[in-house]
Design goal:
Length: about 450
């Protein structure tokens, strides 16, 4: 059976064009951090949002502008009825202006808003990290389960092949009937179909991993050999409290509400006057005028300093409309925050229930596996003394393998629910994946 599993794994390797065996879930996650396109996009989005703060601060800092132009005017002019003469007039000007905002309420609000936007982006990036951990772990364990399904399918195929051989032998010596052969062939066809389906499932899960990593990385065959630490029902209240304080979706929506509130305040500030300190320095040159009979060259330089007060009076109702719009958007953000809190509570309860039910299921399946081992041994003894036939032994072995597969699936489900529970409380970290490596 081991040789058949190696053959199936070789087939998957061939379909993927060769591969490198990874040793741990943590190694796969670290590679995913570098290669996963979705996570890299989240990182770039976070880095882009960090630029919001310097942009907002720029509204409080001086603005310096330099403008200049150079002109040439060519034409004919006639003065006092004289013959027209050609005129060629040259001129240039330059102006340097410095503006230092003194009172701009909207700019100060923008700084506060940018700070909240960065808080939101930080939480969104943390959510992307947790999502990557969950996706990586799910794919990692899906591959593990697919490999276990192949082992079970091969064990079942081996068992039905033995049944077919026995049925043919009994028929040949006259102790069996042809119906037994037909039934054994039917079972073998079904077992072959399940084996092929298991190989396809492994190839599909491997493709999911390749999509995340951007490269072929076949995992080292492994299984969860230990159970999660037992969780007590009384701990649910503590998980709910942690989720209310640390859930990342709540942090995101809280920051979104603060951003919307700042936007409302900023829209109100459109009614407020602004005061700026200005300083101008200018220079100009003109070689003459097309309308003057003589060329009178002028060259000037000037400086000007002062304050500029702007008082908004009427904008056609646009400011009032924006205030109403952003008040409604602020209410929407608040409702989203309420929804996030309720969703976090639901996630904690569902994940906690999944862990608790998983623990109970694991205990039941462990009993089934122990009983299956004893059943196999008992059937083997019975076969030796003649009270059992070979199909009884093979069926017992099939049931044992199926129970072992179900036990591992229950452990995987419990592990994933535990990760989701930590994610719901914002506590999922890379160390949790390292802890899972110790269970493999």
């Amino acid at each position: 059976m081991k040789d058949k599993f190696k053959l199936g794994l070789t087939l998957v390797l061939a379909l993927n064009g060769g591969a490198v065996l990874a040793q741990s879930l943590t190694e796969v996650y670290r590679k995913a951090q570098l290669e996963d396109a979705q996570f890299r996009a989240a990182r770039k989005s976070f880095e882009a949002t960090l630029e919001k703060l310097p942009q907002a601060r720029a509204g409080l800092l001086p603005n310096v502008n330099l403008t200049g132009n150079r002109n040439r005017q060519i034409g004919e002019a006639s003065f006092s009825g004289a013959m027209p003469v050609n005129r060629d007039i040259k001129s240039w000007t330059w102006t340097a202006q410095v503006t230092q905002p003194l009172i701009r309420w909207a700019s100060w609000v923008s700084v506060t808003q940018a700070t909240k936007q960065i808080e939101q982006a930080t939480a969104q990036f943390a959510l992307a990290e947790q999502d990557l951990m969950l996706r990586t772990a799910q794919i990692y364990f899906d591959i593990m389960l697919a490999e276990e399904n192949i082992r079970v399918a091969e064990a079942q195929l081996y068992a039905v092949n033995e049944q077919l051989i026995l049925a043919e032998r009994n028929f040949a010596v006259g102790t069996g009937i042809i119906t037994d052969i037909y039934e054994a062939k039917t079972k073998r066809g079904s077992a072959q179909s399940q084996h092929i389906a298991a190989l396809n499932e492994l190839a599909s899960k491997q493709a999911d991993l390749d999509k995340v990593l951007g490269d072929t990385l076949v995992l080292k065959p492994s299984r969860i050999a230990q159970n999660l630490p037992v969780m007590q029902t009384a701990q649910l209240g503590e998980w709910l409290r942690l989720a209310a304080q640390q859930n990342i979706q709540i942090k995101i929506q809280q920051a979104a509400y603060d951003v919307a509130s700042s936007e409302t305040t900023k829209s109100h500030s459109a009614h407020a006057p602004t005061l700026d300190l200005t300083y101008n320095r200018a220079g100009a040159y003109n070689s003459g005028s097309l309308s003057s009979p003589t060329d009178l060259t002028t060259r000037t330089q000037s400086q000007q300093a002062g304050v500029q007060l702007t008082v908004p009076l009427y904008t056609g109702g646009a400011t009032q409309s924006k205030v109403r719009e952003f008040l409604l958007l602020e209410d929407k953000a608040y409702e989203d925050l309420v929804g996030a809190k309720r969703s976090a509570s639901t996630q904690v309860r569902q994940a906690f229930s999944g862990v608790m039910n998983g623990q109970a299921q694991i205990e039941a399946l462990q009993t089934a596996v122990e009983s299956g081992v004893q059943a196999v041994e008992a059937n083997k003894i019975g076969f030796k003394i003649g009270t059992r036939i070979n199909p009884d032994v093979l069926n017992a072995e099939q049931q044992l393998y199926s129970a072992m597969r179900d036990l591992m699936k229950a452990r995987v489900d419990a592990v994933m629910q535990g990760l989701k529970l930590k994610a719901a409380t914002g506590a999922l970290q890379e160390q949790d994946l390292a802890a899972l490596d110790a269970l493999l």
